[in-house]
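The freezer alarm interrupted the setup, so I double-checked each line after restarting. Inputs confirmed:
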Amino acid sequence: MSDDHEHHAHIETPAPFIFCIATAIMFIGLVMATAGGENKTGDGGYWFVFIMGIIGMFTAFFMWIQDYWNQEGEEDEHIETHHPFWASISTRKFGIWIFLLTEVMVFSTLLSAYMRYRAAVPDYSPDIDCGLQFEDCWVPAADVIRSHLIFGVINTFALLLSSLTVVLALYAAKNNNPKAATRYLMVTFVLGTLFLVLKLWEWGEMKDGHFWGEECNVVKQDIAHHCIAPKYEHGFWLDTSIEGSTFYITTGTHGAHVFIGLIAILYLIAKANKDGYNEEYHETIELFGLYWHYVDLVWVFVFPFFYLY
Amino acid sequence: MSKEKYDKNKEALELSNGNDPLVKFSELTGIQSNLTSYIYDSCSKDPNGISEKITIKELCEIADTSAPSVKKSILRLRDKNILFKGEYKDGRGGWTQYVLSRNVFDDMKELVTVDNKAKSSETKTIDNAGNDTENNSKVEVGVESASKTVDETPKSAKTKAKDHHDEHEDHSFPNWVTFGHTDNPIEAFVKIFAWLVFWTILEVLAIVQEFESFILNMTILFGIAIIKCWFICSFFMHMAWDPPLVNRTAAVPFFFLAVLFLAIGLTTPGAVDDLATICGF
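Predicted 3D structure, all chains:
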């Protein structure tokens, strides 16, 4: 037996660093292109910066995949320290936790902004003067969605179930059952895809104003029975109102995280088919699981505050 | 044995004496632990501590896993300075001779000796209490048992280490969560999922009731969201079983969350929102 040609387990790749820089460039381009310039209405020249950022992100992403693809093992180096407290988890696991902390801040910002805006405007009530178009009142997305709430509920169950399947995939890998681990990962992918498909369909229906029933019309203005507010007569979209902006930005950011998670699952499935996860090598599934559970966790808060209330 | 081949084993022996292992044998788990035990058995037969010619097939059978997994584990053991590669033959019918780290070898030898002594004294006690006419056969049983211990000792150390690391098998779920005691982690996780479904249905039903009270609505929504959050974090994210480092790291953003939600999210439009006024300038 010879293992001379085996790949060394520790890989040094600049890909994550390049990815971060490219992401920053992409966001700077996006913000400046849409809200930059003298009048704060956007500077079209920054679309070039945005595209360069996107190209950089794709390049770094494929570099990253390429560097790790041929790695046969997993890095399991522990944090170098003289105190056992810090060496109790692997460096990668500590890294993903630090990443999740930054993610907590991202979604906390969005949710606190939502609460700030909502607190600034009174909720709709027939007892107060909300203006002709209800423009002076907060008519939440929940009222728009209420008649089709079932899709939000299905999405909630899909994400919760996908969290369970990730746990089962990890458990199967730890028990030397790589085929079961792959199957569970595939189920997770299907559930994640279902979530995104339903979400996109729901967005489309809301944008086009298809969610309000035949019995509801602008004249009736019966919001108490979940008919549509006049300001949403032509649909509910990102630029319709502040309610639309907060709803689409928050659920969109969450959807983007699900999408990134799906790309990661595809990589895990491909890697599982190539090498197989087992008792020895399963940390990548565990780390991905932490990310996926976090995405689920965010939905636990997004769902009640955007779909129910 | 050619000069070159001899040198490889010699080189491995020198490395095994000069490089301290990065982990102890008791810290090894799973395949790595199995392979180390097997290689120890082989090395202990040689006065110099060099293993017999070991094939990948043998190691696969011992570890009950595939060749790539065995190769990866061997590589990891070498990275940890537990194992050093000596003479080998590539290709069909290939084999390798290994040398264990001197420290690891001594540790394992000590474990075996301690267990042997324990077993021997156990056997003696049984013998003393027994009938004289049966002494001969009991001594035989004692020897057999001691030799069995030699074979089994590395495995028990392995099991101990595995038990320490395998979160799902080691850490039980609270009985109230799983509706009674269960040893099956899959069943327990399915029950956690059932809890999450239950709370989701409850929050949807509560909102469909359309309570007038804002405080009641918020209490229900925040309360149920926090309960669901606890279930996901504790069990799906393993925080109930993770070392304190994870829980303390996860607690860091609570300060920032408090700032965001209390100082920004819940302020009214009329509230002071510029730093100069807040500071009293």
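Quick read of the result. The beta strands of chain B are 83-89, 95-100.
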